[in-house]
Automatic annotation (TrEMBL):
GO biological process: L-amino acid transport
InterPro entries linked: AAA+_ATPase, ABC_transporter-like_ATP-bd, ABC_transporter-like_CS, BCAA_Transport_ATP-bd_LivF, P-loop_NTPase
Keywords: Amino-acid transport, ATP-binding, Nucleotide-binding, Transport
Domain ABC transporter: start-end pairs: 7-238
One Gene Ontology molecular-function label: ATP hydrolysis activity
Pfam short name (any one): ABC_tran
Record's protein name: ABC transporter ATP-binding protein
Record-linked CDD domains: ABC_TM1139_LivF_branched
Organism: Rhizobium ruizarguesonis
Annotated family: Belongs to the ABC transporter superfamily.
Highest taxon of source: Bacteria
Keyword Transport: yes
Keyword Nucleotide-binding in annotation: yes
SUPFAM superfamilies found in the cross-reference section: P-loop containing nucleoside triphosphate hydrolases (SSF52540)
Length: 239
């Protein structure tokens, strides 16, 4: 895949159950950077992510990946365009092996591409190589999340959207997953990280956004947000 510079969202609006939940949201994700999207439960983070990935229809606005419009595309076409979603909840195909779970996400079906994709996934998560013949249903929550991230890596994305990285996981596992995101960014992948724990996200992120009641109230450097914690505290209290 050719180098990709940015995903741009302009004036995004989303409705769920007949109610507007995202209001005129605009932002950009850059290649090689980790951007954190923070906010309290119900602030609109997951709705934003699902709209960006094509899972939720949008009520207004535009989305593009460089020159490619993502607006109105199906999740599969958005993934093929270069944006891979790692959804919350450690979702895997339980009756398939670990290796088959990873391979099912590969777009290029040639033997060499599949082999290279697996090697890349196993290099990042050697734990999965040791369990490649094991049914995914028998994995721990942390191992399932590694499989979900490996599925994104094998698609060779320009961008990854990771929804709730640490949800229900032990600190040691979260540390491993965080290292994988750092590797992704170092290899030029742009990462949008949705995370409930602000300190974890800000430790990883170059850039940060804060959402409150379906609107962005901060969009800037993560270091600036660290220096002005009242912005984040206000958003968590208000939602």
């Amino acid at each position: 895949m050719a180098a990709i510079s940015s995903v741009v969202v302009k004036n995004l609006a989303v409705e769920r159950g007949g109610k507007r939940v995202i209001h005129d949201v605009s932002f950009a994700i850059k290649s090689g950077e980790i951007t954190a999207l923070l906010g309290a439960n119900g602030a609109g983070k997951s709705s934003t992510v699902m709209a960006l990935a094509g899972v939720l229809p949008i009520a207004g606005g535009r989305m593009r990946l460089d020159a490619t419009s993502l607006t109105g595309l199906s999740p599969d076409r958005i993934r093929r365009a270069g944006l891979a979603l790692v959804p919350e909840g450690h979702r895997v195909l339980g009756q398939l092996s670990v290796e088959d779970n990873i391979l099912v996400a590969a777009f290029d079906g040639s033997p060499s591409a599949r082999r290279e994709g697996l090697e890349r996934a196993y290099e990042i998560f050697p734990e999965l190589a040791q369990r490649k013949r094991q049914l995914a249903s028998d994995l721990s929550g942390g191992q399932k999340q590694m499989v979900a991230m490996a599925q994104a890596f094998i698609a060779k994305p320009g961008f990854m959207v990771v929804d709730e990285l640490s949800l229900g996981l032990a600190p040691a596992v979260v540390k491993r997953l965080a290292e994988a995101l750092k590797i992704a960014a170092q290899n030029g992948i742009g990462v949008l990280l949705i995370e409930q724990f602000a300190n974890l996200a800000l430790d990883l992120a170059d850039h940060a956004m804060v959402m409150e009641r379906g609107r962005l109230v901060y969009d800037g450097a993560s270091t600036t947000l660290r220096a002005n914690p009242e912005i984040l505290h206000g958003a968590y209290l208000a939602s």
